[in-house]
Amino acid sequence: MPGQEPAENPPKRTHDMSQGPFEIRLSPRGKGTLVNRSDQPQWVLHTLEIQASELRLDDPSRGTLEAFDSRSIKKFDTTVYREMFEPLAPGAALELFELEQKRKGKEFELVWGPYQFEGIPKGTYSARVRWVSAIDQYLDETSGELTKLPGVWPGVWLGEIESPPVELRVR
Fold first, then answer.
1. How many Cβ atoms sit within 10 Å of the Cβ of residue 130?
2. Is a pLDDT exceeding 90 seen at residue 3?
3. Rounded to whole angstroms, how far apart are CA atoms 137 and 55?
4. Please, what sign has the CA dihedral across residues 80, 160, 30, 117?
5. Mean pLDDT of the chain
6. Taking CA atoms, which of 14, 19, 141, 169 is between 20 and 30 Å from 129?
7. Can you give the pLDDT at residue 2?
């Protein structure tokens, strides 16, 4: 308006944080990424063994397809260590997993991290990625005690998010 001076610090453009600081993006080829959409660095714990993101596939005729979690038959250390948490800068993306399609006769095996779908016919499916952040502590090897990481939310953001559905072709 005439006669008013411009603000020294214009308001920052912000994202809707009601769903937390992250967004999951899934490409039509099956590559998933976790994006920090906040204006602060965030700690992320996502590994093949611990807090792995999950691919959900929907078939128009059969509904949601069940995946086998290969971790259920593996023995591995489930202790969470500090170095397993990764800092994710504002606007930065972390690659989750990329879908692998393996032809097995007339059908396909699909692999997303520890999750396997078997006997999948060629076709088009609706796919979403879901990630649950439920761990905000690690084992401090010096003290032998569970310790929380510092963060903005406060500490590690805890919650569940899901990508918008994408059309995924199996061929």
1. 13
2. no
3. 25
4. positive
5. 87
6. 14
7. 41
Residue type at 34? L
**What is the rounded CA–CA span in Å between residue 131 and residue 160?**
6
Q: State the pLDDT at residue 19.
A: 66
Q: What is the pLDDT of residues 99-108, one digit of tens each?
A: 999 999 999 9
* Distance (Å, whole) CA 162 – CA 113: 16
Where residue 154 falls among pLDDT bands split at 50, 70, 90? low
Tell me how far apart the alpha carbons of residues 68 and 27 are, in angstroms, rounded to a whole number.
22
Specify the pLDDT at position 152: 59
Question: Which tokens sit at 40?
Answer: 């602060």
In terms of DSSP H, where are the helices of the chain? Answer: none
Please state, in angstroms and rounded to a whole number, the distance separating the CA atoms of residues 56 and 47.
18
Instruction: Residue 22: name the closest of 49, 54, 3, 44 by CA.
Output: 44
Here the tokens at position 112 are 């997303």
N-terminal to C-terminal alpha carbon distance within the chain: 59
